[in-house]
Amino acid sequence: MKLSADLKAFEGRVGYRFVTPAHLIRAVTHSSMSSAHRDDNQRLEFLGDRVLGLVMAEALLQADPNASEGQLAPRFNALVRRETCADVARTIDLGAVLKLGRSEMKSGGRRKEALLADAMEAVIAAVYEDGGFDAARALVLRLWGDRIHQVEDDARDAKTALQEWAQARGEVPPQYVEVARSGPDHQPVFTIEVRLASGASEQATAGAKRQAEQAAAAALLKKVST
Fold first, then answer.
1. How much is the mean pLDDT over the chain?
2. How far apart are CA 103 and CA 31, in angstroms?
3. 161 with 217: CB under 8 angstroms?
């Protein structure tokens, strides 16, 4: 089995050449394209999540030998969460080589955060199966790069931080409301408002609901913390 020209170029972007091309082909095949003769990347995604976690845990321990578990945990979560995986996927233009069914193609699947994050984990697993743990570790460290050393001490995502802020003051959890949606169906733009029981609120706009919620939470957290 040979790789297409776009997948060969992708190998160059990630810095790894596959001994068994089938591993990479499976990693970029979404379930919408699976068939009796074509495996999708869901099982690889499951494995890649675990490989990524081990690499990150090891890297964080080495980066800061004196850090406590309480300091390491939020850094770890920030480095392995969906948003980070999707962001890394965008830097290597993973979306461009995904094999998607017609419905996913029409709905803008190549830009979907969840789909990109899952595929990124699948690629990590594909490298692990093709070249072993050392190859997968090298890939992750190369692609995540400075993120590992620049991750903030308190790296909780904004929604979690805002909820903890509210709970510490005896308030009910923040409420997130979609107040507007624009753009075509395949590339929607969402405006989300987050509200506290006290009446404080903020809005944010992004191409994914989760991103808009996180941005709104960060803005509101900044407002109530100053």
1. 91
2. 11
3. yes
